[in-house]
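Aim 2, interim progress: modelling of the glyceraldehyde-3-phosphate-bound target.
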Amino acid sequence: MKTLHSFAEQLAALFPSVEQIPEQFRIEPLHQRTYLVDGQMKTWDGTVHQVYSPVHLRTPEGQIIPFHIGSYPLTGEAEALQALEAACKAYNNGRGLWPTMSVEERIECVEHFTRLMVSKKDEVVKLLMWEIGKSYTDSVKEFDRTVEYIYNTIDALKDLDRNTSRFVIEQGIVGQIRRAPLGVVLCMGPFNYPLNETFTTLIPAVIMGNAVLFKPPKFGTLLHYPFLEAFKEAFPPGVVNTIYGRGNAVVPSLMKSGKINVLTLIGSSRVADSLKKMHPKVNRLKAVLGLDAKNAGIILENANLDAAVRECILGSLSFNGQRCTAIKIIFVHRNIAEEFLDRFCHQISKLKIGMPWEKDVMITPLPEPHKPDYLQECIEDAIAHGAQVVNLHGGARFKSLFYPAVVYPVNRHMKLYREEQFGPVIPVVPFEDVEEPIRYLEEADHGQQVSIFGTDADQIAHLIDPLVNQVCRVNINSQCQRGPDTFPFTGRKDSAEGTLSVSDALRSFSIRSLVAAKLNPENKAIINTIVREHKSKFLATRFIL
Ligand code: G3H
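Predicted structure of the complex, ligand included:
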């Protein structure tokens, strides 16, 4: 207990004084008082939400307090409904400027936006670090990955458009089949990838001709502010509108209006479930969701332990385990459990814990204020049911810093067996028969991914076949992850609805629509005139180069 106490003191010592923050990472508080609706930056003089960084600061008096980094509008239901009206007006039942614009013109607007976005990189990376405690390296990666995703989306749309710039003739009927927008999209991203996971739905939704209402996540809100002028400049009024305020105060009225055509949310299945039910005409609502996950790592008796340890560290502790794709439970064959745990804990002891700007830092402050209490509660519950924390200092905490804890042996009576901890606690379950982890996955509410570690091709093949029907990605001797972004990202059960990837997202935010005619001389002449004289944006054979 004494060690834990003094280790907590060591954790406390990691928080800096203002002078200790390197010059290039210092930040001035950002007090956002405007938001974008209907192509205008509206001024807000109502209540605001104060934003505190998970990075605490040491005061000259020696106190350690959360750093106040700004505030943003807490707009209400009325403002949300104004944003909805603006989006409906821009879409205008599919007759608006944006949904009827040519694909080429829409691409130009997105390219314009992206150029403006790139100019904000330094500011946004810094906000990512301060708002959610993400390391500098990972914050830069998140920004660059998002920009690359947008450019790949543009290329994918060009391909899609080229493939549909032609007619098909079947059974005496000529048709042109393209993808058309769906309407008004409500887009909400998560705090752990507030930029990337918001934009990987928002950009495909916009580029396909929809109008968007976009609500930034609770943690990771300010970092979107530098983009608002860029949205305003690059897109026609009402195509992108922002919504601030408490989700439970503003989102229900949007859903109950029946005017939302697509709900896209990367977040919890409980929230998605209740929002969908609020829509008065459920059949008119499409949902594109990335939800809860409890991905398992399965370490077989013959596994290469170096690879298993390396990938399980990355899988369970990148960004403190706060990834939907994180490995959140590890099943290890009983005969190698001790050796695996020794090596795993040894590697954890080498991880750097500290502030987001520190080189090679892996464990950083957690943005959710109640998370350390919850993680401790999970550990206490596991201990009460017979497990132990098996790594030195595991579970030590100070304010927002939480030292990773490896908990062993975990069993089905513990919270950690089923609950998605979304933080630096790693439950490890010993097994004798590989049927045990398979059964776990069958019974689970989640079905995103799994990682199998082993060296016997027969045994791995024997696992792949049942597991691809339980989850949507089986990783071999590799951590679970979303990327590359051209791979389909989805899940079964409560883990997802719809598929995201560069090309899948374009499909998710659109529907196939076609023009067809019986092939007779009169129709041929009409179609030829429309195409030759470029009278329609849809019925056209223009080829984007
Ligand atoms: O939080 C979920 C993210 O989509 C994970 O993405 O696997 O590339 O870290 P990632």
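The mean pLDDT is 97. The chain has two domains: 22-55+69-290, 295-497.
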